[in-house]
Amino acid sequence: MTRTEEFEELRPLLFAIAYRLLGSVSEAEDAVQETWLRWEAAPTTPKSTRAFLSAVVTRISIDILRSARVRREQYVGPWFPEPLMTDPYDDPERSAELADSVSVAALLLLERLSPLERAVFVLREVFGFGFPEIATAVGRSEAACRQLAVRARRHMEAGRPRFAADHEEREELAGRFFDAFREGDLKGLRELLAADVQLVSDSGGKAPKFRAGVFGAEQVSRLLAVLVTPFVRIGGSVEQRHVNGQPGAVFRDRHGKVINTLVLDILDGRVQAIRSVLNPEKLSHVGPVANVWTVDRETRQALRQRTAEA
């Protein structure tokens, strides 16, 4: 097998590691590309290509993450990871860990960790690397990595909900939610939302947003029910999809261009949180991006016209 073939075989794993460390599709792709350049220039062949490339992409991602933290502190409004439509890496023996670790809720918890804690947690808990390999990847002793793993696990477990939703129950509830949403069914929406549900958007200051967030079942259900009819009236569509492994949707304008993504956080038989990515800089990998300001203006004009006609 040539070096190129070895690399391409491992590319899905390398991207999966980088994305979980960075929460960014574009930055993960950059990290994988830089890994390829270093692999191509490596003077010798390592004993384990998988271990070598995983270590390289981890170190590159840690460096990117450290510089990205400064930018995120200056980010306008809430920061969410770039939506991931499909995880390219699959491992049947670790399917549960892989699915859980790519959810928006889990990625936001990972943001609380230091870059080293995050790297150790991802390599150990998600991908099952041994501590000797992890120590090489992050440049710390095995003992130090074990301590980092304990701290990271403690932080992650403290932030996780006590009861996860059953997969079938979650999918069924999501289907009911989107049916009610498309129909503008206020009562149906309200019944599916937790009392303290929150609707929060990541616009990065580059798109309209729902103020600092919309909170409570009554407020959220009313906003969703009011906006969907004029949105559909101007040719908009709601494409139900899995986003970061969770029930969600892609919103498109009349030309099929991407407006935003939306993901549902479902627990205890209710939608607990609705998170939307509106920042166009985070959506280009999903498809051609719409002018969200134009869509927002047209939707509000259609809403005013509908109100006047009523």
Task: Specify Rg, calculated over alpha carbons.
Answer: 21 Å
- What is the CATH homologous superfamily assignment of the largest domain? PhyR, sigma-like (SL) domain
How widely separated are the two ends? Answer: 69 Å
Question: Overall pLDDT, averaged?
Answer: 92
| Strand element count | 6
**SSE ordering:** HHHHHHHHHHEEHEEEEH
What is the class of the largest domain in the CATH system?
Mainly Alpha
What is the overall silhouette?
elongated
In the CATH hierarchy, the architecture of the largest domain is Up-down Bundle
Family: Belongs to the sigma-70 factor family. ECF subfamily.
Protein name: RNA polymerase sigma-70 factor
Organism: Streptomyces flavalbus
Subunit structure: Interacts transiently with the RNA polymerase catalytic core formed by RpoA, RpoB, RpoC and RpoZ (2 alpha, 1 beta, 1 beta' and 1 omega subunit) to form the RNA polymerase holoenzyme that can initiate transcription.
